[in-house]
Amino acid sequence: MAPFYDRFIRITGIDHSRNIPDWLAPVKDMEVLDLGGGTGMNAETLSKAGAKVTVADASQAMLRRAAAKNMSVQILHAKAEALPLPDGSFDIVLISDAWHHFRDQDGVTREVARVLRPAGRLYIIDFDAGRRGTKTLALFERLLAEPSAFPKPGELVEKLRQAGIEGAYRDLTFDQFIYSGSKKQR
């Protein structure tokens, strides 16, 4: 999907990149991990807002697109469930339109909790598994041979709570939701 991902996201109206800096505020001078950040759409706006951004993705094709944008961000080829990053590296972790692609969501949850600093913030934007439009999207992704396991927001909140990240979600447009949470301080 790398060659047409940005265009697809914009055409479908699910491009939230302009809103991301406001939703995650404050971001200036914050260390932000854009996990599953693909082509860097969100990283670009976060960087312009003053964040220090690392884009991590398992797809080299997506990361080549991100690198071609000549942004001042770090690019990291890595699986989300095995990040080669030190503990407590980030103030913010953003996972936008990627959670449902992670095959080992429990492993990703552990890694996110590990790389977040105490009181660090986690934001997940994805599609609600219980919605009709999401079921259509899941079918489309299966036709493209894309693995997907869309979350139910309430179950995601509980999974993250058990990992030490307290938060809640709210609905967005197009059957999407945004989860906002913080890692407990020790």
The helix/strand order is HHEHEHEEHEHHEE
List how many beta strands DSSP finds. 7
Mean pLDDT: 88
CATH-defined superfamily: Vaccinia Virus protein VP39
Number of spatially distinct domains: 1
Strand order of the largest sheet: 3-2-1-4-5-7-6
Q: Helices and strands: which structural class?
A: alpha/beta
Q: Give the fraction of residues assigned to helices.
A: 25-40%
> Beta-strand percentage?
25-35%
Please identify the top-level CATH class: Alpha Beta
Distance between the termini: 41 Å
CA radius of gyration = 15 Å
**In this structure, how is the largest beta sheet organized?**
7 strands, mixed
| Shape call | globular
**Low-confidence spans: pLDDT under 50, at least 5 residues?**
none
**CATH-defined architecture:** 3-Layer(aba) Sandwich
| CATH topology-level name | Rossmann fold
Number of helices: 7
